[in-house]
Design goal:
Methane Monooxygenase Hydroxylase, Chain G, domain 1, elongated, 2 domains, mainly alpha, 556 residues
Length: 556
């Protein structure tokens, strides 16, 4: 009965530890969202800077698995290349060692401080302010990690003689390096966190339940087990995303094989070296030996394989072939469902997707008028393909934003609300562009053409529209509100032009300088362009008013 009680106490400690890890990870990701954005915006082809980015992002989210899933999402969205993603994955393995170092440094005074921190975090959760609540979650998470660790290392858990005897007998049987590596793989895969697995192993070594020489092999296995999350995340993704998961697995496998061979042959010298670096029999010294080894393993593996990034990429391309159907499948360009696990990054990618949609809408409007003026169908395929992408992006991104809104903080609700309206306005502009295209095709079939004067008037009106596209896009991209008066002024000019152009058109009809068959087409084009201007104003004003309306925008 005492053994069962101790096992329950042990499992409770592990559970509290994992809950604390999740709390801490979520709170850090939300509070440091802008920091991750800045890091990912600096992605380049420089391998060393990419390793630092991977380590930094993982240090923020406290999970190499989360970083891997994020990278898979960015690669799947086409934002990041395999050559850029590989060093980031390597850096993620370094970033995840921070948890182990924190766990190893704990002592009685540190534990008391963490208990107080956990309590303070709970109290902060009662405040209404979002930032205070977030800080409370962070404090609670950090505190719960050490509450869980202390429960695991208490007299009722790992230090209980019955538990110690049980694990001693287990590790007398399971003392073969490959079996220990397998234990590390399975344990990490089950709890979906190498940081948590490492923390448990460090605690076991600190309590004397697990000998150091055996713990080293379990740590190696944990680094392979953490790849399971990435492998699962790439299911249904494109070929490049699957290659990222394969590279992650291969990288950790190569490092594990190399270190297994070294430790197997030089086990005693390595254990003696770690004992010399961290002398003493107290729990902190024992724990620091495991933590230090974990850091050395990941840093050494990264430095050893960093020069072979190109070879790893080529190997992944050789194993995983391109999907021939991928190019035909309608998909996002920058957004991926896997990014929902990191809302701040997902929101950044949503903006990029909207900007891409903006480009397509502008291109369709321009090409439709060009085709109309030339009386040709040369741009038919481009216009129709763009329209399909615009409609897909509007529908799919709206659904994605609905899912994202559940994950976001209250402060970001206004941004998501404005994105909904921007999507709607851009889709409506796309519809007007499609109408202009249909008008042009119908005129071509009926051999109807505008007079030179009419074409010149439409061109002058479109010059203002083009300027509005430029300003509206700049305001949406940079949030520079200084250009909003110019945007509103241009919209008023377009309104005036519509009235003037229709009036001059009827004057030409009265004078017999224009054929009556042209009238409905000319009016439709002018009215369509005026409505495009209305929607462009809405897009620009979305930065100060979620609905995009100029009315009452000053209150925002």
């Amino acid at each position: 009965m005492e053994l069962i009680q101790s096992l329950i106490w042990l499992l409770a400690g592990v559970g509290i530890f994992i809950v604390g890890m999740n709390f801490l990870s979520d709170a850090l990701e939300k509070s440091a969202g802008s920091g991750m954005k800045k890091m990912l915006e600096k992605i380049s082809n420089n391998r060393f800077s990419s390793v630092c980015i991977g380590a930094g992002v993982t240090a923020i989210v406290q999970s190499s698995s989360a970083t891997s899933v994020m990278v898979i999402g960015l690669v799947n969205a086409g934002v990041m290349t395999l050559m850029q993603a590989t060093p980031i994955i390597m850096g993620a393995n370094i970033g995840t060692t921070i948890t182990g170092v924190l766990v190893a440094l704990k002592n009685d005074y540190f534990n008391m401080a963490m208990y107080a921190l956990a309590f303070a975090g709970v109290m902060m959760g009662f405040f209404k302010q979002e930032k205070v609540k977030l800080a409370g979650t962070l404090c609670s998470g950090l505190g719960l990690i050490f509450v869980g660790l202390n429960i695991m290392g208490s007299e009722d858990a790992f230090k209980n003689p019955l538990i110690m005897d049980m694990f001693t007998e287990i590790f007398k049987t399971v003392n073969f390096p490959l079996l220990l590596i397998f234990v590390g793989i399975i344990f990490t895969a089950l709890i979906q966190s190498s940081s948590a697995a490492t923390g448990v192993v460090i605690t076991m070594v600190g309590t004397g339940v697990l000998p150091l020489d055996l713990a080293l092999f379990i740590i190696l296995g944990a680094n392979i087990g953490t790849c399971v999350t990435a492998l699962l995340a790439c299911i249904g993704a494109n070929a490049n995303s699957k290659r990222v998961a394969l590279i992650h697995f291969t990288f950790n496998l190569i490092g594990t094989v190399l270190f297994t061979a070294i430790i197997w042959i030089f086990k005693d010298p390595i254990v003696n070296l770690l004992t010399t670096v961290f002398p003493g029999d107290d729990a902190m010294a024992l724990q620091m030996r495991v933590s230090f080894f974990h850091v050395i393993f990941n840093v050494t593996t990264t430095l050893a394989l960093l020069p072979f990034v190109k070879q790893l990429v080529n190997y992944s391309c050789l194993v995983i072939k391109d999907d021939q159907e991928e190019t035909e499948k309608m998909s996002f360009r920058y957004v991926d469902e896997r990014l929902l696990s990191t809302p701040s990054i997902a929101l950044m990618q949503v903006k990029k997707e909207i900007e891409y949609m903006f480009d397509l809408v502008e291109e369709n409007t321009r090409l439709s008028l060009v085709a109309m003026n030339r009386g040709s169908s040369e741009h038919n395929k481009t216009i129709r393909n763009n329209e399909k992408i615009i409609n897909f992006t509007n529908n799919a991104l709206t659904k994605f934003l609905i899912e994202l809104s559940v994950c976001m903080e209250h402060s970001d609700e206004r941004i998501i609300g404005s994105y909904f309206h921007v999507l709607n306005d851009l889709e409506r502009i796309g519809d007007h562009a499609e109408n202009l295209h249909e008008i042009g095709l119908e005129m071509m079939d009926k051999k109807i053409v505008f007079s030179e004067t009419a074409r010149q008037e439409i061109a002058e009106m479109f010059d203002n529209i083009s300027r509005m596209f430029e300003i509206s896009r700049n305001v949406f991209d940079t949030h520079n509100k200084d250009n909003l008066p110019s945007l509103a002024s241009l919209e008023e000019s377009v309104d005036s032009q519509k009235k003037e152009l229709i009036a001059s058109h009827f004057a030409r009809l009265a004078e017999g300088n224009c054929h009556v068959d042209v009238s409905p087409y000319f009016s439709s084009v002018v009215v369509g362009l005026e409505r495009v201007a209305d929607h462009l104003v809405n897009v620009g004003y979305s930065v100060v008013n979620p609905t995009g309306s100029q009315k009452d925008s000053n209150q925002y």
